Amino acid sequence: MLRRKCKAAVMAQCRHCWRLYQATPSHMQTRQFKVAVIGAAGGIGQPLALLLMTNKLVTELAVHDIEPTTGFRKDLSHMDTGCQVKAYFGSDQMKTAIKGADIVMITAGMPRKPGQTRDFLFDTNAPIVAKAAALVSEHSSHALVGIITNPVNAVVAVAAEAMKKCGRYDPRRLFGVTTLDVVRAEKFIGDHMEINPRKVRIPVIGGHAGTTIVPIFSQCQPPFEGDKECIESIVKRIQTGGDEVVKAKAFKGSATLSMAYAAARFTNALMRGLKGEPGPPECAYVESDATDSPFLSTPLTFGPKGIAKNHGLPELDEREKQQLKVAVDALKKSVSKGVKYME
Ligand SMILES: NC(=O)C1=CN([C@@H]2O[C@H](COP(=O)(O)OP(=O)(O)OC[C@H]3O[C@@H](n4cnc5c(N)ncnc54)[C@H](O)[C@@H]3O)[C@@H](O)[C@H]2O)C=CC1
Ligand SMILES: O=C([O-])CC(=O)C(=O)O
């Protein structure tokens, strides 16, 4: 964070009356964070950019896509928030968008259609993620990187390998974004218990596809009220939440608005960590030694260098231990696929 000195006084008009008052020139305002969104013109990218524009911790937003972003940037630039937005487009400009960013959120890539698995997207999306990760290493190696692009379970390993090739991999700074699984869990549990979903906290560990998504009902706060059948049906709904949206959108993409909401929550948690004011732990898919899977989503506390503390596995009941075992077997294969792709 930096504060530049300037004696210039700027007079501005109050929003509510005609009085003039002394305002802080924009270049004197405290710089908070630069966030770059890669794939910003897409279904997730646009609402994510909108939400980030409204976050006081974001003072510079770089929107990048292979599609033109100038019109979309112009639109955002009329918002009277303290955030300056800059547009970049085309492969060549990705590095400029990333340069100097504190956080890079990668949402570039294809979403799935009904009948496809997330893994089906690997061949298309892996090279996109590899390129973005390499550019982060080269042009903003201090940045925290959130990967939204699917299949998260495999492409996070692709990103890690791409960064290793550049000699700049720091496992504390690379995250697969699994927040939507947590958001869904909190919403479905809140609705079931007839309480505000915002009051629910539950770790969702593992990965981000089908049975690799493991919600830990035994650690739900407030304690979950419902029998075994009820837990099973909500677990199933969380694990298939993505399919539910893909089906409902009928060939018009996958979850975008709820994902943007989840990604904005995750980005905010990273920024609070960067400021040294972390909030409650958030789960994300990161390099891990908690199980045999080299990557695993577990609760994390963030700090100025990314992960300040990986809380590891929460206490699990017998059913959850079985679910985790299934998840770990599948995750090991996905991670191997990502690593092999980069060999
Ligand atoms: N992690 C999660 O929980 C979730 C992940 N996703 C994934 O997020 C990804 C994006 O989904 P949507 O936004 O709905 O797709 P979309 O197709 O609406 O947007 C993707 C954007 O990426 C851009 N793009 C493609 N290649 C690029 C490149 N090389 N450089 C820069 N931009 C590029 C496209 O032009 C497009 O604007 C998909 O892979 C989807 O499966 C979706 C929902 C939840
Ligand atoms: O299901 C999809 O393809 C998109 C996604 O990851 C989700 O909504 O959880």
UniProtKB/TrEMBL annotation:
Substrate binds at R112, R118, N150, R184. GO terms for molecular function: L-malate dehydrogenase (NAD+) activity. The active site is at H208 (proton acceptor). It catalyses: (S)-malate + NAD(+) = oxaloacetate + NADH + H(+). InterPro entries: L-lactate/malate_DH (IPR001557), Lactate/malate_DH_C (IPR022383), Lactate/malate_DH_N (IPR001236), Lactate_DH/Glyco_Ohase_4_C (IPR015955), Malate_DH_AS (IPR001252), Malate_DH_type1 (IPR010097), NAD(P)-bd_dom_sf (IPR036291). Residues 178-340 form the Lactate/malate dehydrogenase C-terminal domain. SUPFAM superfamilies: LDH C-terminal domain-like, NAD(P)-binding Rossmann-fold domains. Keywords: NAD, Oxidoreductase, Tricarboxylic acid cycle. PANTHER family: MALATE AND LACTATE DEHYDROGENASE (PTHR11540), MALATE DEHYDROGENASE, MITOCHONDRIAL (PTHR11540:SF16). This is Malate dehydrogenase.
